[in-house]
Specification:
alpha/beta, 9 helices, 47% helix, globular
Length: 225
């Protein structure tokens, strides 16, 4: 039977939060009102760390920011973001972990709460062919409208998105001989609970405690930033 390996992205395969860093980048380059945006972004990040974030509220904020720009402009900004922020965060330990599953010919996917615009180039840079992410609505000219399509890919939403993605391939999780999911966050416990091999990866304190109680393995790929 084939196997499947799923990975969270932020603080799991990269030692940063790509969504938060994208906001900080927009402030640095003067694309948004730095003071107002940085405060709102920091508030949302603190809520995420505390486990109190309303994912729809946050995604509407993040996608609304993207909707302010023509697609050509935000694509140019994202290329600069990849070069300045993401490339230095692509570390050998993450590539080694991915390669282990690639060598086993596992089906590999990243499943992240961050939106597809921010994360698709990162998944490509990591060599991961499948990405499940929050989906921004696009207009006829491929511009981001600011609206979210479907449910957020966070918490139990990750399970829903995974099931829907597999269903399109006429599969379900039980069709795989083994299923791994690597994550750093207690927010991902719903998906960690349904795979055969949950792995707390660079875990935060709440996930580490949960993993210890459950007897799940814990690994550190790099020091958190």
């Amino acid at each position: 039977m084939p196997n499947i390996a799923l990975f969270d992205l932020d603080h799991t395969l990269i030692p940063i939060d790509s969504d938060y860093e994208w906001g900080q980048f927009l402030c640095r380059v003067g694309a948004v009102d730095a003071e107002a945006f940085a405060k709102r972004n920091a508030d949302f990040f603190a809520q995420y760390q505390a486990g109190t974030l309303d994912p729809v509220e946050y995604l509407e904020f993040a996608l609304g920011t993207l909707a302010q720009f023509p697609r050509k402009k935000i694509d140019e900004l994202h290329l600069q973001f990849m070069q300045e922020v993401i490339q230095p965060a692509l570390l050998p330990a993450a590539f080694d972990l991915l390669k282990k599953h690639q060598d086993q010919e596992d089906l590999i996917a990243i499943i992240t709460a961050t939106n597809r615009f921010v994360t698709a180039p990162i998944a490509q840079a990591l060599g991961v062919p499948h990405l499940l992410a929050a989906e921004p609505e696009l207009d006829a000219a491929n511009n981001i409208t600011g609206k979210l399509l479907g449910v957020p890919t966070s918490g139990a939403g990750k399970v829903i998105h995974l099931q829907d993605w597999l269903a399109k391939q006429e599969k379900q999780l039980s069709d795989f001989g083994s299923s791994h999911f690597y994550s750093d966050s207690h927010n991902d416990i719903p998906l960690l609970e349904v795979v055969t091999h949950p792995v707390a990866t660079n875990p935060n304190a709440r996930l580490s405690a949960h993993a210890l109680a459950k007897g799940w393995p814990q690994i550190q790929l790099f020091d958190k930033q």
